Amino acid sequence: MSDVDEEARLSALYSYGVLDAPRPKALDELTQLAASVFDTAMSTVTLVDRERQWFAGKTGITPDETPREISFCAETIPTRRPLVVPDARADERFHRYPNVTGDPFIRFYAGAPLIEEDGHVLGALCVKDSRPGDFGPRQRDTLDTLARQAAGHLSLMRSRLMLAELGDELVRATQREEDLIATISHELRTPVTAIQGYLELLAEDERLQEYTRFVEPIYRNGQRLVGMVEHLLTGTRPAGAPLLLHRSPVELHMVLSAAVQACAAAAEPRGVELVVQTPTEASVVSADVVRLTQAVQQLVRNAILFSPPGGKVIVRAAYEPTPAIEITDTGVGIPPDELPYVFQRFFRGRHARSQAVPGVGLGLHIAQEAVGAHGGRLTLTSAGAGTTARITLP
Asked: Per-residue DSSP letters for 163-228?
């Protein structure tokens, strides 16, 4: 790449105003989804600066930036193609990198370039692990889809920034909301993360093995506290504030698999069976994969929580006559007089109260907003025992 091209690329990168700013929640969520889909310990949305790489979204790693000279993602800039490294220790290009020989001991790497609307490569969305691995063609396509999602989120952020400079009050209000969410999240998650770090050290100390049973529930409830605050913030968006989406082609089976995998830990202790059914011929829809997966995850979690021990939750996708997702459970059902109110904020029916089902009554509201932003429709039907939630997409 010539010096002129690199300067143009850097100028485009700086126009996004993301470097050294609080990480956008949407990009952190995208890396969480990528790590879950590919079963890797680490994932980042990496922006490659002149002498460093900055993690605009990250999961499983601690630093916010590392030197460009040890960047795998920087290799995607001149080629503009995905990079897959099955085992970095055996690769002459990377085996001496300090992040390979030392923490976080990267062995497997797969990254797809973040190509913005003007054609510049800003960096890459990647997944990494300390175990060797490889990608097949379908996995590469999925990684490309997630990279396009990340580039789209960055594009939306830049658009909002430009509109704010023009005095658009709505965009300024949206930005203030995002700043507030980021601040609250930071102020809560930073001390909880520190506490959890010390708990991990205590759990590894052989001298304190007899206290391990006390450490684990403290750690688990810290995670639950962070998740609850994020859930509250997502469900209490100001009225009229738009839910911004970035659509790209995505197969519904990928959305279903990610949502079910995220809910598996809640189903296992209750003995609830999770069944995923997909059509024999897969097709694609135009959707924001993160938002749609969150909506399905809320519905699957509700189905699990209201199912008896040994119950079953069936998650299925269909494409005819229109794309649709159905979640059916064998739970207690919803009383007819409560059906008109289930999508209201903080509504908890009598079954939720009598059975002490955890939650604050925001899950269905969050799912409805995400589906509505896609131009779709979310409906719930219940006839006695069992409930069926159906998402219909345009």
From this structure: HHHTT-HHHHHHHHHHHHHHHHHHHHHHHHHHHHHHHHHHHH-GGGGGGHHHHHHHHHHHHHHHHH
